[in-house]
User: Which sequence fits this backbone?
């Protein structure tokens, strides 16, 4: 009888009965909710031929449906003379994870196509997974141009172009890949 009980406790059925059930498998479908994509840019000239500053930023947070953790992502692009040239190439940028998070997230944004890519790596049951999603953002932006009618002195603002977009909400369903 002792050996029968030992068999019962080492059988797969016994393990299934004694281990707490996983809410979802590691590669289960998930969604990322992005409630607040924010994009803006500004180009300032101090003379007709001298760009003083240029900068664009994209910022957002996203939450995963599987663990409710939030990642905060911010990217910058500088040195462009045309507002359409910011983020000309996809540059992977790290996101800030919640304290104690087991995930590592990166994103890239390509300005001319408005394409946002997010990659998230995570470990589950001893394996590493990659969750990846991409979308073309339907940003609704307003461009404001200021020309100083009284400009006479280099160093004053000659002109400025500002692009501000309405905050955008997006839900993405990433593809899950087991890496090892």
Assistant:
């Amino acid at each position: 009888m002792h050996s029968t009980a030992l068999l019962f406790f080492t059988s797969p059925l016994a393990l299934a009965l004694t281990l707490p059930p996983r809410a979802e498998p590691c590669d289960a479908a998930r969604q990322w909710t992005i409630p607040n994509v924010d994009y803006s840019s500004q180009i300032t000239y101090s003379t007709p031929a001298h760009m003083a500053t240029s900068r664009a930023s994209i910022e957002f947070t996203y939450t995963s449906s599987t663990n409710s953790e939030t990642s905060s992502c911010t990217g910058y692009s500088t040195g462009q003379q045309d507002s359409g040239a910011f983020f000309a190439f996809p540059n992977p940028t790290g996101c800030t994870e919640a304290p104690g998070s087991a995930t590592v997230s990166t994103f890239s944004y390509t300005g001319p196509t408005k394409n946002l890519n997010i990659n998230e790596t995570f470990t589950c049951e001893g394996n590493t997974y990659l969750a990846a999603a991409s979308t073309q953002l339907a940003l609704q932006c307003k461009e404001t141009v200021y020309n100083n009618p009284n400009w006479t002195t280099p160093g004053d603002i000659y002109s400025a172009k500002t692009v501000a977009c309405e905050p955008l909400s997006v839900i993405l369903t990433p593809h899950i890949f087991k890496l090892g």
